[in-house]
Amino acid sequence: MKYLTEFRNGEIAQRMAREIHSITTRPWKIMEVCGGQTHSIIRNGIDQMLPAGIEMIHGPGCPVCVTPLELIDKALAIAAQPGVIFCSFGDMLRVPGTDADLFQIKGAGGDVRVVYSPLDAVELAAKNPDRQVVFFGVGFETTAPANAMSVHLAKRRGLKNFSLLVSHVLVPPAIEAILQSPGNKVQAFLLAGHVCSVMGYWEYPPLAEKYGIPLVVTGFEPLDLLDGIRRAVIQLEAGKHEVENAYSRVVTFEGNRAAQKLLAEVFEVTDRAWRGIGVIPKSGWRLSEAYRDFDAEQRFHITGIHTQESALCRAGDVLRGAIKPAECAAFGKECTPRHPLGATMVSSEGACAAYYNYGRFISAEELATAGSGLSGAAHA
Amino acid sequence: MPEQAKTAGPNASKTAPDFSNWSCPLPLVGYPNIVMGHGGGGKLGNELVEHLFLPAFRNPALENLGDAAVLDLGSGRLAMSTDSFVVQPLFFPGGSIGELAVNGTVNDLAVSGAIPRFLSASFILEEGFPLAQLAAIVESMARAAATAGVQIVTGDTKVVEHGHGDGCYINTAGIGVLRDGVKVGPHRAQPGDAVLVSGTIGDHGMAIMSVREGLEFESQIRSDCAALNGMIAEVLDAAGGAVHAMRDPTRGGLASTLNEIAQSSGVGIAIDEASLPVRTEVQSACELLGLDPVYVANEGKAVFIVTPEAADAVLKTLRAHPLGSNAARIGQVTGEHKRMLVARTAMGANRVIPTQIGEQLPRIC
Fold it and tell me: Which of B332, B345, B359, B360 to mutate to test the interface with A (most CBs of A within 10 A)?
């Protein structure tokens, strides 16, 4: 597979890991912002390849994890209504609201459907004029253009039965919130490559300057991640704080201008609550005045939702890197992927679930010996 | 020759009528679709049996049309298995619910070390289901049974009201005779054993996903649906007691099967990701959707846990069989990290591959 295979070369990865070992003289804490990067780091075992002093902190860039409980409950209330077709990306279905998740709503007779693009939901609306079709528009700047396009098209086609339940969040304000939080430990960020493919990275130099912190635009394949980490370490070791692009095959400084224009037309910046973190000012998008008619929150007038996060759950501390998942008292006890207390235990990209699934029961030494017995055994 | 077969064209034979031109003889002609009466135990139901099921599945045990089939299995130990099939869509690239229903039960018997002999087939049909589709399903079952060398000897049909079913559900149960001297089971894996898989993983699951609403891939992915008893018999002939465990990694994929074996046997299993056989188009589709092929279903693959001494011979036997040409040795059983599946990643690091909690869900980004 072109553009994938060549960025998964094990030999080059080992060479890059050795280079990172050779240039590292001190411990550093680096946060990868995006959930897709967390997934790739853990799936490929990249964290095991790094020097002991380099700690990867898994950031708040998993849309499943940071969508606030209140909005999940609103989604459940809308999806349960007769006459509604509720469409969502697959991994939102398992996120627990206060009393249920979308799977349970589906089981109880709600018409909940997994779609692969919000435009599929627009088509559903066109084909089912007697039903209200709602798309759960979550995510960062990456998923925003397609969501924006869905309402743009629905408006142009005059579809009165399509609406968007919007919970869009933005990366730069989240990074700033982490940097401003008391006791922040993060010393460098790997910026989310796909967010930057849409937005470019013109928003970031002021942040690098203001907080004196290296920011490296990074991709998702193993070699992309190792290159991003390598560049961050080089800057940290040299005391630099620049914005670098380690994902230049996809990302330009300006980003996708056409997408940005559409986003500016369809959305406007608003304060957003982040699950486990709280409200971050100007950290999200809502539909602009011109598209307010397509806002599912307005169309369905869901009221009377009062939510309370688990008192035990420390997802917020995990998301801003203050603690590792295993340092939470509920981790692996009250809170498991089967019975998650917080969203970071739900998504496969959530930091807590990743720790639980991929590392909870196994020591580093055991993992190291597991592979040694394999050499010579596998030859296809 | 039954009347039905006569109408089916010049190439029709007793065992494999040509249902592509199948049309319902009188008086079914008034009902091109299933009606409640087809499950009512009266004339309509009898006609289904006489004109559809009997010609397709014909064998002495079935022809009695008694309340139970009377079978002669000789002496020895028997294996029995049952499975229900509710797949959507009913027809997909590489197969249909009919082939799945036969091969699924045949494979469950075969990986238990049994020689599959007889199957039952029960249909739960939804009112309004086209008879032509039912005929195509029945024909594919007859073909699959003939290929697998099993007989469908008893069956049942029920009809549920429109809206209370999903077209066609099928349950099959099967009986097989255990081979002498074969002792296989998921609890018998031992440290040092080699782990082999008979071919590419993830084909069935991605074939199904590729034809569901909203997904169109450029190249067609075909299900690997197949009866494995012939290939497994050859492996057991060649290696016999050296085979400790066999499983067909269906729902939950290779990862779930290997986790189950690790847990049943109280051992660890280590696999090398680079050695996993995965078709490029399956890998590409998985990349697009954020799925991991180790969790995707297979319907024509088997996993073998064999002594290290026998591994090369088993691999050779598998690769010589048409269904095992892409067989690979993918790892080994170990005394380390007990009850867990660990993969060496292509990067040279290791990761635990856990059992999935529910269905694998496409990721957002």
Answer: B345
Amino acid at B195: V
- Find the CB nearest B347 among A44, A91, A94: A44
* Separation between Cα atoms, residue B147 and residue B142, nearest integer Å: 9
Q: What is the 3-state secondary structure (H, E, C) of A171-209?
A: HHHHHHHHHHCCCCCCCEEEEEHHHHHHHCCCCCHHHHH
The structure tokens listed for A170 are: 């933005």
Q: Taking the domains of chain A in order of start, what are their residue ranges?
A: 27-308, 315-362
Per-residue pLDDT at B323 exceeds 80:
yes
Pairing of β A54-61 and β A28-34: parallel
* Strand order across the B341-344 sheet: B243-247, B303-306, B194-197, B328-334, B268-272, B341-344, B350-352
B329 touching chain A per CB within 8 A: yes
* C-beta separation of B248 from B228 below 8 A: yes
Q: How far apart are CA B207 and CA B221, in angstroms?
A: 5
Show which of residues 198-217 on chain B sit within 8 Å of chain A, judged by CB atoms: 213-215
- Least trusted range by pLDDT, from A246-255, A276-285, A289-298, B252-261: A276-285
Of the given ranges (A34-38, A163-167, A284-288, B139-143), which has the lowest mean pLDDT?
A: A34-38
Q: Which residues contact A11 (CB under 8 A, 6 or more apart)?
A: none
Q: pLDDT class for B363, splitting at 50, 70, 90? A: low
CATH number for region A27-308? 3.40.50.11740
Contacts of A182 (CB under 8 A, 6+ apart): none
Q: What is the pLDDT of residue B18?
A: 52
* Residue A352 dihedral angles phi and psi, to the nearest 5°: -70, -45
Structure tokens at B325: 């040409």
Q: How confident is the model over B201-232, as pLDDT tens digits? A: 999 999 998 887 557 776 789 999 999 999 99
Q: A322 pLDDT band (50/70/90 cuts)?
A: confident
CA distance B55 to A195: 61
Helix axes B97-110, B131-148, angle to 10 degrees: 30
- Residue of A322, A320, A319 whose CA lies nearest to A353: A319
Give the count of alpha carbons within 13 A of B211, CB side only. Answer: 19
Q: How is residue A29 written in tokens?
A: 């804490």
Crossing angle for the helix pair A118-127 and A144-156, nearest 10 degrees?
Answer: 20
Q: Are B22 and B55 in contact (CB under 8 A)?
A: no
Interface size, chain A vs chain B, as Cβ–Cβ contacts under 8 Å? 152
Q: How far apart are CA A328 and CA A322, in angstroms?
A: 11
Query: What domains are defined for chain B?
Result: 3-178 (3.30.1330.10), 194-352 (3.90.650.10)
Between CA B77 and CA B47 the distance in angstroms is 37
Q: What is the DSSP string of B285-354?
A: HHHHHT--GGGS--SS--EEEE-GGGHHHHHHHHHHSGGGTT-EEEEEEESSSTT-EEEE-TTS-EEE-P
B352, B353, B355, best to mutate vs chain A, most A CBs in 10 Å: B352
Q: Structure pTM? A: 0.84
Residue type, A28: W
With a CB cutoff of 8 Å and minimum separation 6, the contacts of B143 are: B16, B99
CA of A257 to nearest chain B CA: how many angstroms apart? 21
